[in-house]
Design the sequence.
């Protein structure tokens, strides 16, 4: 079976299990349980495999080590190694497979709720005082095993949990294949599936893969390695992980997320994609109000983001002394924080870096403070590299059309056939506009960007070319003439002329229609006469 087939099979199996076991529970609630237990099984498998490697020279297996006469010394040695290598520790009796086995054993011994809660707490506590403490702390806080949502009685709750563990235990995650990322991708697939049915809340934690691909490919143009990638509103981390798929290597991942549940989801997602705990730093706070003290002084080579559209923020005058906003002279309005996120990202962007973020169309043309900030970014800083219009209705929970802004601090011209056309203005004297708003495929009620649509956007950006009714390289003078209004129709003419109307033919059609009406009226009048009733006209 190929990797693709394995992945497809695993995705379908996991989704079937989720649907079979969800019952009457809300999708948002069950998401936390099913994803949490998959993560627990993953950690158990990693722990078992790593411990077996350590024990192999002694001819021992991890499942039996607790019965060994030197069990205490062996477990302490394994714990020491595991905390550095994996970032956490699990005893053999705490492994997923052991609890699943006990749950299916029948009798009183199959009540595992209390032990399961203790194990999940133990995983977090095993990291205390170690380098991984922040990365594993409170990871399972959303798995409330006492919740009435699981069942009205303790036995009912236990029965449901045992069913979940039993179904998951039948699946081989193929964790011994270190080159495989099948499970990580299947895990993210589940996140996406839950997001698609979660209405408005979905936008808080998941960016559709089609959009993630575009952003990731834009910021990795001409790069095979990245020192760092950052997402200030990282949600479940899908954007950060997508960037990693576009290059050979990413040194470090940085992100910030205000929602505690989504923050936990992001850290799980990182670990499930084999990102070592020393390689990622995710922070749980409001990015605009409380940016991570570990991030704020760093500058990142790639920045991607899908901030909450037109979110409210305080816009307190105190922010005018904040280095992120002070140079602009104005703050984004209280009712729309879109440009506040842009200003934050620009502050964090490295001189050789690229940032790409999704925003509502209003940022392109709204006036007042937003118009002032837009002008500053273009006229004073010359950071804006491209504006890309996306179709409406491609995000979960909102049907509004959106756009992508691409910004670079260093926009020096690159005279290369694959990057810029000789007939267009130099890169640092122009802005590329792409109108991809009408290029999509409708799938049920959602508009979807297929691979060919994504390729068209990215190729046009990379080659920086004007294409009739699709893209246009506008000089900065043209943008200035438009008073820094970036509304895409001002630059990309997508008007389609209607075919000329043949008035003579229309006249003949009308005459023929009048003749048909007269004949029909006569037929009706004849029928009425035969029936001895008045005609209706």
Sequence:
């Amino acid at each position: 079976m190929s990797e693709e087939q394995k992945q497809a099979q695993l995705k379908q199996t996991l989704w079937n299990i989720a649907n079979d076991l969800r019952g009457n529970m809300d999708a948002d609630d069950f998401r936390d349980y099913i994803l949490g237990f998959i993560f627990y099984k993953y950690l158990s498998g990693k722990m078992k495999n790593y411990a077996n490697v350590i024990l192999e020279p002694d001819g021992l297996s991890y499942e039996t080590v607790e019965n060994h006469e030197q069990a205490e010394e062996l477990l302490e040695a394994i714990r020491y190694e595991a905390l550095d290598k994996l970032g956490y520790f699990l005893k053999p009796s705490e492994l997923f497979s052991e609890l699943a086995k006990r749950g299916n054993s029948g009798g009183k011994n199959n009540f595992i709720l209390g032990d399961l809660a203790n194990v999940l707490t133990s995983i977090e506590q095993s990291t205390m005082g170690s380098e991984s403490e922040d990365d594993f702390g409170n990871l399972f806080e959303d798995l409330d095993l006492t919740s009435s949502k699981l069942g009205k009685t303790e036995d009912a709750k236990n029965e449901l949990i045992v069913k979940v563990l039993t179904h998951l235990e039948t699946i081989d995650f193929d964790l011994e294949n270190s080159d495989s990322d099948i499970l990580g991708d299947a895990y993210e697939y589940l996140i996406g599936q839950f997001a698609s049915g979660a209405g408005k809340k979905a936008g808080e934690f998941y960016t559709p893969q089609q959009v993630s691909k575009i952003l990731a490919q834009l910021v990795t143009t001409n790069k095979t390695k990245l020192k760092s990638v950052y997402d200030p509103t990282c949600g479940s981390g899908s954007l950060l992980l997508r960037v990693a798929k576009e290059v050979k290597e990413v040194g470090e991942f940085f992100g910030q997320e205000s929602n505690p549940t989504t923050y936990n989801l992001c850290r799980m997602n990182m670990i499930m994609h084999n990102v070592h705990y020393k390689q990622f730093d995710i922070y749980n706070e409001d990015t605009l109000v409380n940016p991570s003290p570990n991030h704020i002084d760093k500058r990142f080579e790639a920045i991607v983001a899908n901030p909450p559209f037109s979110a409210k923020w305080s816009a307190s005058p105190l922010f005018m002394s904040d280095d992120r906003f002070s140079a602009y002279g104005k703050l984004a309005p209280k009712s729309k924080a879109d440009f506040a996120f842009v200003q934050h990202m620009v502050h964090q962007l490295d001189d050789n870096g690229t940032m790409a973020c999704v925003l509502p169309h209003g940022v392109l043309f709204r006036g007042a403070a937003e118009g002032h900030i837009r002008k500053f970014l273009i006229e004073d800083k010359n950071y804006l590299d491209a504006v890309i219009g996306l179709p409406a209705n491609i995000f979960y929970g909102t049907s509004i059309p959106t756009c992508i802004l691409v910004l670079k601090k260093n926009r020096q011209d690159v005279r290369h056939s694959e990057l810029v056309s000789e007939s267009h203005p130099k890169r640092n004297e122009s802005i590329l506009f792409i109108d991809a708003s009408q290029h999509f495929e409708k799938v049920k009620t959602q508009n979807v960007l297929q691979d060919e649509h994504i390729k068209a956007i990215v190729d046009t950006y990379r080659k920086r070319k004007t294409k009739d009714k699709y893209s246009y390289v506008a000089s900065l003078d043209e943008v200035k003439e438009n008073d820094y209004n970036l509304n895409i129709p001002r630059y990309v003419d997508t008007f389609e002329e209607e075919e000329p109307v043949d008035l003579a033919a229309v006249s003949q059609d009308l005459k023929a229609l009048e003749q048909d009406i007269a004949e029909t009226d006569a037929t009706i009048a004849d029928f009425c006469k035969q029936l001895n009733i008045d005609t209706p006209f």
User: Anything to note?
Assistant: The radius of gyration is 30 Å. Residues 503-537 form one domain.
